[in-house]
Amino acid sequence: SIYILVDTLIIGQGVGAEGISALNIFLPFFTIYNGIGLMFGLGGGILISIEDGIGNKKKADSYFNSAFIGVIIIGIIFTLLTNIFLKDLAYFLGANENSIDLVMEYGRCISLFIPTFIASNFLSPIVRNKKSPKLAMMSVLIGAGLNIILDYIFVFPMNMGMIGAALATVIGSLTTSLVLLTHFIKKENRIQLSLKEVSFEMVQKIIGCGGSTFLMEVASGFVIFIFNIQILKYIGDIGIVVYGIISNCVIVGMALFNGVAQASQPIIATNYGAKENKRVQTVLKYAMITTILIGGILFAIVFVFTEEVICTFVKADEQIIYMGIPAVRMYLSAFCIMNINILLCNYFQ
């Protein structure tokens, strides 16, 4: 979330409104990468935690092997397809003659490193389920912090534009993945990678368990795609800029709601495996209170400081402000419902 948010802020100030429009056209790609990583990371992590709760370490390791091999194969397929058909996909997602060059500048760099984005989303839930939540948090802070610094350096002093923003995002995400991999250096955390341990039946269970997370991510990307097409048709490029701001606010909100849901997930899964149902219900109650509070506070901030939020992203003229204020307020009222959806989705997983 921080990677895309910072890219938008830096691009909005350093490249201009056209850059935000191009970035928003590319956003559906990110939802697919995130969705694949989270499907295998959360799906595998939940099953690993349940087996750990039962006390079956060997089967937990087998689930990791199956998830790891599965995510590698799908990652390679998506990388090849995206790089071969990038320009066609960009036009399909709403790029036009005004935006295609900026979309391709950003997209070429990102699409070469798709496995990096999938890996960070895959490893984070796995490491958290392996009882290293502090390392998962540290990896994100280090990667995101590096992204913020490099974004500024590449776009402003070095004047690299969209390519600079994309490169900073790649380096930040790669750093996150490398930090997460340090979890497996310790002897007690090592898992023997073996194709013999991979089971198609386990891969099916992992996809079945994490599939709803993938669908939620891809659905949000599909919504962005549909909005982009309709807004270009009926409103024009200014509408895409406003929707780009909304999309980024939604990504921040979803990240926080996913944070609460995913924080509760290993505790719920482990205690479910151990048949400690009272603990499961207690954690759900605390998570529900937390996510409702976050959703309410976020919407209140956006509602009161709508113009300031818009101006944070882009040097807004009167037309963007006039169009943006009612649209941002109406769309982001969803913060009060999507938080509950995300938590309950993770709970039933």
Q: Which regions are unreliable across 5 or more consecutive residues at pLDDT < 50?
A: none
Order of helices and strands: HHHHHHHHHHHHHH
Helix fraction, binned, reads: over 70%
Number of helices: 14
Number of strands: 0
Structural class: mainly alpha
What is the percentage of strand-forming residues? Answer: under 5%
Give the termini separation: 23 Å
* Gross morphology: globular
Largest sheet composition = none
Estimate the mean pLDDT confidence. 90
Rounded Rg: 20 Å
Helices and strands in order:
Blueprint lengths: L1 H13 L2 H38 L2 H28 L1 H7 L7 H12 L2 H16 L3 H23 L5 H21 L18 H35 L2 H37 L3 H28 L1 H8 L4 H14 L3 H14 L1
Question: In short, what is this structure?
Answer:
The chain has 349 residues and is mainly α. Helix content is 84%, strand content 0%.
List descriptors.
349 residues; mainly alpha; globular
Structural account:
With 349 residues, the protein is mostly helical. The protein has 14 helices and no strands. The chain starts with a helix and ends with a helix. The mean pLDDT is 90.
